[in-house]
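Good day; I would like, with your permission, to put a structural problem before you. A protein sequence and the structure tokens that stand for its backbone fold form the material at issue. Thank you for your consideration; the sequence and its tokens are set out here:
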Amino acid sequence: MRPAFAVGLVFAGCCSNVIFLELLARTHPGCGNIVTFAQFLFIAVEGFLFEADLGRKPPAIPIRYYAIMVTMFFTVSVVNNYALNLNIAMPLHMIFRSGSLIANMILGIIILKKRYSMFKYTSIALVSAGIFICTFMSAKQVTVQSSLSDKDGFQAFAWWLLGIGALTFALLMSARMGIFQETLYRQFGKHSKEALFYNHALPLPGFIFLASDIYDHVVLFNKSELYQVPVLGVTVPIMWFYLLMNVVTQYVCIRGVFILTTECSSLTVTLVVTLRKFVSLIFSILYFQNQFTLWHWLGTVFVFTGTLMYTEVWKNLGATKSQLQKDDKKD
């Protein structure tokens, strides 16, 4: 029952989170900092109350290691959200972040000296090809859409190029953080809820450097049109409603993934998260009418096919079927 409940949380939380993020980004493309701050604050307060026991529970992993992890986590979160302000469309943003397998494999080879099978290398090649196709086609769209003048077109393309650089940096940094977490968990044991709390609580002082931008968006949010919240009947600026729903759905998403990791194998978790990304992508394209060509669809298929190949779904499903047949014979 709990795995099914967790899958429901992941799909409901993560997919709806993408919707509210895009609603925010479409109105104010530069709102990434206030969104990140609100998410971090909410999860930090919840963790302080229920995980850290109001600060009375000492951490199982030394704070100095969390400080390193938090620096990477904070950087990844801010850069990923800020990329939306650099001519990066939401579908491309989602597809690009699906390339985490590439970054993990590259850093795993370099740092951990890992070696992989030809099957996994093939899957990574598919993911790489998919991201290249989508990136190249999006680059052409940016150039065409911004061709009011040579100067405007060049400026739009330059911002887009900076956005691609930001996403690439965040992808590699996220993979490095994953390897760092892996080594910490191997040394001190798995403490996912504790890591979730410290990853969101310790970076909060860093938002002081973003205070001006956050305040500017507070003013903009206050000026947005009024919206009457269903059931409650309370009237609030609609941007604050979108932000609240984004924060709540983000929390539901993270909690769902956490429950899933404690109840299911990593294969199942990866498969669920991959399918969730695909559903979110399809909904974003259809609901928001984002431009998506046949080349984009081909790239998307490559990305998700490569991801599923990397997890060796078919081999593991075959092994599971064989095990079930053995169990039936025993019975």
